[in-house]
Each structure stands twice: as structure tokens, then as C-alpha cells.
């Protein structure tokens, strides 16, 4: 009998949400979303449909996942990567750890999803397609021309193409054409089907990941063997090349909260304070006055502050990269 397994990918550091997100506590573990972390919300969201839980994380954050799941009384398989090797390898490890007929629901740990019934409907549809040996990706109906997401061109459940993050003009063209979806980074498939496709299209990733997995001790992967694995995303390795891809066009509300403009929109929707000029303070309850500024976000932490216009959220990663070279202790 096949089982449904929820696989949470939680290796990211959330560089575009610095200084809230740090290497010691990445964004998925920050309890700033109605008193819960994104990781906790992700685990809860899929607990009703999945019989097993697998977490693929890093040795730097696996203790944070453990704290949350032990507190919630959830049993899970912990796969600990010694070094990040992108999503193709991370997903391969979860598939190697599963029975061939198991259906895996792959989700990042740092997304916000609203719409419980529509989400459950999309998951059920994806599981049925996965049982028919398809590899399913979830596409979200776009609400604006977003330049921070990849897009899926589709006709019903057929995938016509995957598009990388576009510029604003191209993103607006995608919206106007009406058959493009945001690429959510969520997938559903049988373990055996994914591994067959990975072996066919990226045999080196498959073989080196299998070697590393077979040598793992209690789910902990060896660093030297892991370094041999090519660092490739599952999109490039399989999704953009396989003939078995289907898309579920999902109507639930979704955000990857990958930048401060999306965090701003989410917090505002939940009643977070915003002044009459659209300015917001995150991380501090002190009275703060903004003069001559509009749509400005002030991010406070005890060791570093960030002040930015909402429209410049994608540039935070430049600050992160600068600090990585010059002040790594602030990361």
C-alpha cells in the first residue's frame, strides 16, 4: 500500500529578509506570523492528508525544526544535509528514503497559504494525478505582475513552458495573456517516478545522491560525498525536461514571503499597523514617526536595522551579499 508523505524543504537562509532572517534563525523559523512560524504552519497544513512527515534541512537549522516538531508531538524522518546542493538532491534524498509507490507532496517551509478548502482540493487533485504516474507542479493564479516569481505557461493541466523570473513588462504580458501561473515550487509525485526521471535526465545527480544517501548515518549526510553532487534545481533537472509533467492550477491565496514587499502586504492584511502614508515598522513597538516618506519599511533588530522603500525589496539581497564579504558576523 502506498502512503502519502509530506516532504518539507527547509534549507534556505532567507537572504532577502535580512536582518529579520539570519543564518542562526532563518525566516521560516521566525514566530512573527500570528504567533507561529512559517515552518510550523507548513507542517500543520499538510498533517491531515499525509501519513508521514520528512524534513530535509541543513545541519545549521535541523535543531530549530526539531524544537518545533517535538513541541507539537509530531514524528518525522530528519534528513540533514551537510552542505546545500539545491533542490534536485534534497528531493532525491526524500525519494530514496521512501517506498517506490509512496506519493510525496513536496513543499518549501516558508510559504503562506490561505484558503483551506481550495488548498485541500488542489492537493487531492495532485495526488490522483501522481497515482497515474505524472509529476505534478502547483501553479498559482497570479494577482499582479510579480517579477520575483517564475511562471508556468499552461493549457488546462498541460505545461507548455516554464519561464524564469521576468521583468515587469514581460510579467504584465503574462498576466494579459491569461494562461500563465506563478510557479509555487510545490510538487507531487510517486517516489519511483521522480527518481526514474532524475536518472534519465540528470544521471550524475541521481548516482551521486544515491551514493551519499547510502552512506548517511541516521539521516545525516556526509560532507565530502555531498560535495560531489552537482548543485541543480529540480526545475532544471526534471520539471523543464520531463514529458510526465502536469500542472494543477490552484486558486488558493499563496505567497512565498520572499521579500519585504510581500511580508508588508501579508502583515497589513492581518492588521499590522501602517501609517497614513503607507509606512510600516517591523520588529519594534516603539513610537516611530516617518516624515516626508511613503511606503517605507523600517525593520528593527537588536544588532542591525534596515530602512527601505517597499518597491526596492528585491535589492535587500545586495546588502546581504555585501555583508557576507565585509561583516559576516551580522548574518
Brief sketch in words of this structure:
The protein is an alpha/beta fold. It has helices at 38-45, 62-71, 86-96, 116-131, 168-177, 191-201, 203-214, 223-227, 234-239, 260-269, 316-326; strands at residues 4-9, 52-58, 77-81, 103-108, 112-114, 135-140, 151-155, 158-163, 180-190, 245-250, 253-255, 280-282, 296-300, 305-309.
Question: Which properties best describe this structure?
Answer:
nine-stranded mixed beta sheet, three-stranded mixed beta sheet, globular
Task: Tell me what the structure shows.
The structure is a single chain. With 331 residues, the chain is of the alpha/beta class. The chain has helices at residues 38-45, 62-71, 86-96, 116-131, 168-177, 191-201, 203-214, 223-227, 234-239, 260-269, 316-326; strands spanning 4-9, 52-58, 77-81, 103-108, 112-114, 135-140, 151-155, 158-163, 180-190, 245-250, 253-255, 280-282, 296-300, 305-309. Strands 1, 2, 3, 4, 6, 7, 8, 9 and 10 form a nine-stranded mixed beta sheet that branches. A three-stranded mixed beta sheet has the order 12-13-14, with no helix packed on it. β7 (151-155) and β8 form a beta hairpin. α3 (86-96) packs across α7. It is globular, with a radius of gyration of 20 Å. The model has no long low-confidence stretch (mean pLDDT 92).
Amino acid at each position: 500500500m502506498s502512503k502519502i508523505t509530506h516532504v518539507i524543504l527547509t534549507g534556505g537562509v532567507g537572504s532577502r529578509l535580512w536582518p529579520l532572517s539570519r543564518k542562526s534563525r532563518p525566516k521560516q523559523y521566525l514566530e512573527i506570523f500570528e504567533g507561529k512560524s512559517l515552518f510550523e504552519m507548513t507542517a500543520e497544513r499538510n498533517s491531515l492528508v499525509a501519513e508521514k512527515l520528512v524534513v530535509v534541512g541543513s545541519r545549521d537549522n535541523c535543531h530549530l525544526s526539531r524544537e518545533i516538531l517535538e513541541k507539537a508531538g509530531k514524528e518525522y524522518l530528519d534528513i540533514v544535509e551537510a552542505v546545500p546542493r539545491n533542490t534536485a538532491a534534497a528531493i532525491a534524498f526524500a525519494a530514496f528514503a521512501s517506498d517506490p509507490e509512496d506519493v510525496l507532496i513536496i513543499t518549501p517551509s516558508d510559504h503562506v497559504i490561505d484558503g483551506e478548502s481550495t488548498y485541500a482540493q488542489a492537493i487531492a487533485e495532485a495526488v490522483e494525478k501522481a497515482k497515474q504516474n505524472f509529476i505534478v507542479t502547483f501553479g498559482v493564479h497570479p494577482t499582479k505582475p510579480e517579477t520575483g516569481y517564475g511562471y508556468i505557461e499552461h493549457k488546462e493541466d498541460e505545461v507548455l513552458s516554464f519561464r524564469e523570473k521576468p521583468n515587469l513588462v514581460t510579467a504584465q504580458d503574462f498576466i494579459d495573456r491569461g494562461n500563465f501561473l506563478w510557479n509555487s515550487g510545490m510538487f507531487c509525485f510517486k517516489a519511483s517516478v521522480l527518481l526514474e526521471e532524475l536518472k534519465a535526465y540528470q544521471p550524475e545527480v541521481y548516482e551521486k545522491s544515491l551514493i551519499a544517501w547510502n552512506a548517511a548515518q541516521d539521516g545525516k549526510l556526509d560532507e565530502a560525498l555531498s560535495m560531489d553532487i552537482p548543485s541543480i534545481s529540480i526545475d532544471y533537472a526534471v520539471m523543464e525536461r520531463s514529458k510526465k509533467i502536469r500542472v494543477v492550477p490552484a486558486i488558493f491565496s499563496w505567497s512565498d514571503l520572499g521579500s519585504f514587499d510581500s511580508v508588508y502586504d501579508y502583515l497589513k492584511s492581518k492588521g499590522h499597523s501602517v501609517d497614513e502614508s503607507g509606512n510600516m515598522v517591523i520588529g519594534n513597538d516603539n513610537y516611530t514617526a516617518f516624515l516626508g516618506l511613503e511606503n517605507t519599511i523600517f525593520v528593527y533588530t537588536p544588532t542591525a536595522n534596515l530602512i527601505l522603500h517597499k518597491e526596492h525589496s528585491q535589492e535587500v539581497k545586495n546588502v546581504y551579499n555585501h555583508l557576507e564579504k565585509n561583516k559576516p558576523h551580522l548574518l
